[in-house]
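Researcher: I'm preparing a figure for a lab meeting and need a structural model of a single chain. I don't have an experimental structure, so a prediction will have to do for now. The sequence is pasted below. Please return the structure as tokens so I can convert it later.
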Amino acid sequence: MNDHADSPIAAWIALLLFGIYLLSFSGQFYSQDSMLMFSVAESFVKRGEFSADQMWTIYKARNELGPDGEAYSKTGYGASLMAAPLYALGLALPGEPGLLQVTLLTSSLVIALTGALLFLSARRLGFSRRASVVTALLFGLATPAWVYAKQFWSEPYALFTLFAAFYFLLRLRDQARSRDALIAGVALGLAVAVRVTNAALVPVFVWYGFWRGANKFAATIPQSRPASAASVVGGGRLGAVVDAVSNRRDLRGLAWFTLALGVIALSIAYYNWARYGSPLSTGYRADETFDNPILLGLYGLLFSPGKGLFVYVPFLAALPWSAFVFFRRARRETILALVTFAFYLLPFSLWYYWWGGTNWGPRFLVPTLPFLVLLSAPAVEQATRVAATKPPNRPSPAQRSFAAILLALCLLSFAFELVGVSVPSLAYRARMVRFSANPEWDAIFLPSSSPLIGSLNLIKPSVLDFAWIRASGGDVSIDWLVIALTVAFIVFCVLSLRAQFAKHSPDRELGIASRKPLAMTVAVSLAIALSIFSLHRYREDPRFGGSDGYRALLQTIRREEQPNDVMILADDTRAPFFLNENRARLRWYGLSRDPQQWDDATRARLTRLSKQFARIWFVYDDATAALPDPVGAWLSQSFKPIDERDFGDGARLMLFATTARP
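Model: Understood. Here is the structure written out token by token.
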């Protein structure tokens, strides 16, 4: 690997993928988990808290309550922490773009960066530059990673952190730099912070990065990748089965790796203690068990029409042969990749909720995608070698057939993911509810009901999941300016990436090298400017259900809020709008007006709020005033309103003074 030549290519891959993700950007949350993790990011940035009270009872999304009576997200803090910088940026940007929309770009960033790391990993393992680029682009555009790059699940962050830990341990094994060990430790620690079950993978990563072992079986297997000094330490000693870390650089790297892991482990323990009063409590319920029939889970996650990995990513059909070839080239990397895949496949096959809800493909296997695509690199290299062969060195018919079949499968995979980014899963779910008595299972197990096929019936302007198109009634508006600018940026990245492969004379190459930093700086600046411009154009997305009246209401609260205030929103449908638009710093609660959500815990929470806060801002929709509203009734019976305002569009605001002292 030539770090000087390959690093710019990796950067261009990341920029290209980000540009494509920006073109397919939706700016919408489609799950309760997404809103819960976002709520944690909001609470942390604005008030240094960990609560998710914004989703207390809205959409029935409340998790287990902590000892303090607050609602918390049962997910780890990792995804919320990595999204927090962009949320904070959204608060600071002029023009006030949508906070949810800005934050959602984090998923696109981490997937794009993973594509760059995948390229660098393939190069470091000895694959050709062309094959490595194709492998990285296949990951970014021909797997469900593309779909999850536009959504806010924990999977993109688990994917990024796990693969980053692998890449920097790979660098460590080649170069023995303590800095790489530190970064790998931070990445792996964050992977555990994203999903606590990743802690079970820590011993495997430690073995991969730091254990120098050799045995008779391993010694008999050829390795085509040039061995580094670090990789052969301990190998060849007569009678040695395992040789542990044996030099100071390894010990120093292990120390930094362990320190990073330990610090993040302590932070996770503190996070659990702050939420639930115990460093070992995560918030998952006792009835969330691993009791699903494993054969059902295995078939469902691997081969079912609606969730199967090999159905959604057809080019992985080459994986058995490709992984075997990969094993002969890089034994440890193959073992790590396969163990990581097995760790995700087997437990989630047993998980009671193995299908992962309404989403695209096998959601729980998404973190393993970069490892699986990396194992596919030998197949990609074989196909690219056939494509690059020129007469008279004609490839054999078998080689040409292999390349043609793999190309067809890659194109099919790309087409599948294009459908996934075009049609939201919830739209297909709504369609299935109309036509099926058992929509969940039919969409998973019936080929005719698979989202891969059924979603094609929904490809129309009113359903397309892109922020640049808006359909209302029979009117369709398309933001052609955003499309044109984004496509121009993508073309610029493609041409720049292609230029890296051009052959030049030594003198001219020196001239080009001198201009690379400028081109890269311009590209990064353009990506930032294009993102900000697009977000401003998308700000008033009608899919959030907002209006000028509600914007005026939020501006009023932001202008008049006091340190001892709290806000209550009694409207499920307005929650996404408030998450996107609310810039007030005060704590706020989403309390559904659904009488079935009015329980003892909610009444107790209101009682505590009245003793904790001096004023309560109560937001409700006047258009639904005739419907039951137990929260509003409780407030009106308990306190006398000191102010009431009507902002139009149904937006109503009442201010109550409580018995608490300011």
